[in-house]
Design goal:
By secondary structure, the protein is of the alpha/beta class. The chain folds into two domains: 223 residues, 3-Layer(aba) Sandwich (D-Maltodextrin-Binding Protein, domain 2), CATH 3.40.190.10; 199 residues, D-Maltodextrin-Binding Protein, domain 2 (3-Layer(aba) Sandwich), CATH 3.40.190. 45% of the residues lie in helices and 14% in strands. Strands 1, 2, 3, 4, 5, 6, 7, 8 and 9 form a nine-stranded mixed beta sheet that branches. Strand 1, helix 2 and strand 2 form a beta-alpha-beta unit.
């Protein structure tokens, strides 16, 4: 019923947004985009959009900042349901929303438009495999294009390391070292390590812990999006280690820490190490008053890290002329030049292989090696938790992790409850 309703909404939207556009008319497109990090990412999108409009007088793209990723999905849904006068022709949303965007009909599959473009396949083939992994839906179709992509890394305060006798050039490489170093770094004014636990971010970090400790390739889920593996012994063990940092080692702040608060706490010296997106690198680099480093996330059985961030989607039901204009804009924003510029100015990982052959990125990495860590970590990365009805599955996992953190459930009870609840949600998609 939900699928039919949304399909009808998308069809109605086509009548309001579509319609043939004559050759002498300017095609007005609206882009919805989120920013989930600090710094000037939103301003840079505005600048790049203005540059595109100047180069393409027959198209005018209006970039609309729609808050964080959750806010953006809500804005898209509201627009599709006719609750907003502003409707997107294309949007940036989480790559992990790909199954939801497909089965609800909010976004169109891109295979035909790629095939019709003489440059289309070469364009796709140039994207880094680790990011293209979560551009596909169940039937093998491409539904999105990598844009503001990242992995979680470990940011650490080198000055604090030196203060307690730790080598500033030797960050922790294992879970045991992480706990040991975090204990040494903890004092009355500072915690050793910070991890976000709020809804919407805990599942990203926990994907990394799972990958670092798992014995299967995917950690938390089947790549078909229909099955999760929350209650495996390895994932229970991963959550227990997370709890131990707070309860046994007492090197992490108790309770729920917000994703958006961690960079501020790190910059103010309240926490010596944080798990956070490389997309915050530019913000930290600009505002840190101390020497800091960037490192791989420590391993348990192996290295592992979750990829995340946003992809470009084209809204279903818009006219062919608008589809072509939206596709052209995506190609511009994701060009080698602009993908390189975006990476250097934000900290997000450059999404295309050709970026790494540019003089600009080579010179940037040479002058600032820390920026390359996220790219190097891609060798061990997998997509974060991605399923059908992803928002609900995330809520289930995050709520149960929070219940364990606040002492309401043990690690085993939390993961068992999460498994049972997720199985119920995913039953309809089997």
């Amino acid at each position: 019923m939900k699928k039919k309703l949304l399909a009808a909404l998308v069809g109605a939207m086509a009548l309001t947004m579509g319609g043939p556009v004559s050759a002498d008319e300017v095609i007005d497109l609206t882009l919805f985009f989120p920013v989930n990090v600090g710094g000037d990412a939103a301003n840079l999108i505005d600048e790049m959009t203005a540059e595109y409009n100047e180069q393409n007088p027959d198209v005018n793209v209006t970039a609309v900042y729609t808050g964080n990723y959750d806010d953006t999905v809500t804005a898209i849904q509201t627009a599709l349901q006719g609750g907003s006068d502003t409707k997107p022709d294309l949007f940036v949303s989480l790559a992990t929303q790909r199954f939801t965007m497909d089965y609800t009909g909010m976004a169109m599959k891109l295979d035909d438009i790629i095939a019709a473009d003489p440059e289309g396949q070469d364009f796709i083939d140039d994207f880094i495999d680790g990011f293209m992994l979560d551009s596909y839906v169940e039937d093998g179709s491409i539904i999105s294009i990598p844009f503001q992509r990242s992995t979680e890394v470990l940011f650490y305060n080198k000055d604090a390391f030196a203060e307690v006798g730790l080598d500033p050039e030797a960050p922790p490489t294992t879970w045991d070292e992480l706990a040991e170093y975090a204990v040494k770094l903890t004092n009355d004014d500072r915690y050793g390590v910070g991890i976000a636990l709020n809804s919407g971010s805990a599942q990203w970090t926990f994907t990394g812990f799972s990958l670092q400790n798992c014995t299967n390739e995917y950690g938390l889920m089947n790549p078909n999006g229909k099955e999760v593996y929350f209650d495996t012994p390895e994932n229970v063990e991963a959550l227990q280690f997370w709890l131990d940092l707070q309860n046994e080692y007492k090197c992490m702040a108790p309770g729920i820490v917000q994703w958006t608060d961690l960079p501020t706490q790190f910059l103010s010296g309240q926490v010596a190490m944080i798990y956070h997106t490389t997309g915050n690198l530019a913000n930290i680099k600009e505002n840190a008053t101390f020497d800091f480093g960037v490192a791989f996330q420590p391993q348990s059985k192996q290295y592992g890290a979750p990829t995340g961030g946003g992809n470009f989607y084209i809204t279903s039901g818009i006219s062919e002329e608008r589809q072509q204009a939206a596709w052209d804009f995506i190609k511009f924003m994701c060009s080698t030049e602009n993908a390189t510029k975006w990476s250097i100015n934000t900290g997000y990982v450059a999404t295309r292989n050709s970026c790494y052959e540019t003089d600009e990125l080579k010179e940037y990495y040479e002058s600032y090696p820390a920026a390359k860590i996220a790219y190097e970590q891609l060798e061990y990365a997998q997509p974060e938790l991605t399923t059908y009805n992803a928002a609900e599955i995330w809520r289930i996992l995050n709520d149960n992790i929070q219940a364990a953190v606040t002492g309401e459930l043990t690690a085993e009870e939390a993961m068992a409850a999460a498994q049972e609840q997720a199985d119920d949600v995913l039953y309809d998609f089997q």
